[in-house]
Design goal:
Helices cover 36% and strands 24% of the residues. It is built from nine helices and 13 strands. It has helices at 12-23, 39-49, 55-75, 95-104, 118-131, 173-186, 203-209, 216-232, 293-302, and strands at 29-30, 82-87, 109-115, 140-141, 158-163, 192-198, 241-248, 253-260, 264-268, 273-277, 282-289, 306-312, 318-324. The strands form three sheets. A seven-stranded mixed sheet has the order 4-3-2-5-6-13-12, with helices on both faces. A hairpin with a 4-residue loop joins strand 7 and strand 8. 42% of the residues are buried. The model has no long low-confidence stretch (mean pLDDT 94). Bound molecules: S-adenosylmethionine. Residues 17-324 form the Histidine-specific methyltransferase SAM-dependent domain. One of its GO terms (biological process) is methylation. Pfam families: Methyltransf_33.
Length: 325
Amino acid sequence: MGAAIVDSQLPESAALADEVRTGLQTTPKRLSSRFFYDAEGSRLFAEIMHSPDYYLTRSEYEILETHKADMLRQFSPGNQPFELVELGAGDGLKTKILLGFFESQKADFTYAPIDISADALDGLVADVRRQWPDLQVNPRHDDYFSALELLSQETDNRKVALFLGSNIGNFAPDDAVDFYQQLHDRLQPGDIVLTGFDLQKNPAIIHTAYNDREGLTKAFNLNLLRRINRELEANFDLDAFDHYETYNPENGEARSYLVSQKVQTVTIKALDMQVPFQPGEIIHTEISRKFSRTQIEQLAQQTGFSVTAWFTDSQGYFADVVFER
Ligand SMILES: C[S@@+](CC[C@H](N)C(=O)[O-])C[C@H]1O[C@@H](n2cnc3c(N)ncnc32)[C@H](O)[C@@H]1O
């Protein structure tokens, strides 16, 4: 890829080293899903978004296409200026529906995408600047927890935070409450958060989304081991691990695991670590939580927001929900 467009001092390699050191010495072993998104992980996720089994992207795409005018009315009544800040923007595939529409309506706004993946952010920013050269874009290569201060910067303009693609599903329930409390603390009255929530539905549909027929989710999950091999000089044998997914309809949690296929010991040279695995032993890599309408309303209520709009797709699979501070 060409020269980076987005400046960064984000110490991702140090964060990965900490995560691997701690997570692979814990029982059961675990690694955080935020480390999925190196260049190859971001590329694989873009492929997953086009997979026929991964209904999430299609559903949210439909919502944004159908309701973009209602969303603009929510964000900018009377064409008031606003600052659009996107947490975990990725390649912005769906956000571009909004950006294109807002530009066509001559809305007065700026766009600040935030992501820990430099590759995803670089691609997004290059694309947005090419398509809409007049739009002011202020990218930030950062963790969205550290970037929250952007939301508390003094300005007369309304802040609109986008948190699309069911990113919220990767948070444990208490962490989600904590995150929305932090958002509430930083935003001003009248500011807005638009969140994409994947809704509870037939468990078989959810299970298939994370066990797609093309094996993309499997490749995405295994790529985490490839990243550790490259960045931390490890020797994970990718053929000796499999992908496994569970969905528990009682608590709405889809969970991804990597499963050791045999007795093996992995060496992680940069950390001076040996990691033993038993056959069938797992590394837990991701939670993708699915929500009921009641849970979403409770999240807003517990963290001091009001639900002011609720947009869903024709199948009722996904919801983009407006919380107003
Ligand atoms: C599931 S993808 C969704 C992307 C986009 N929001 C969408 O709807 O298509 C998650 C994105 O969040 C980013 N991400 C994950 N954890 C993050 C964190 N802690 N801080 C900033 N970005 C993060 C990843 O790099 C990835 O681009």
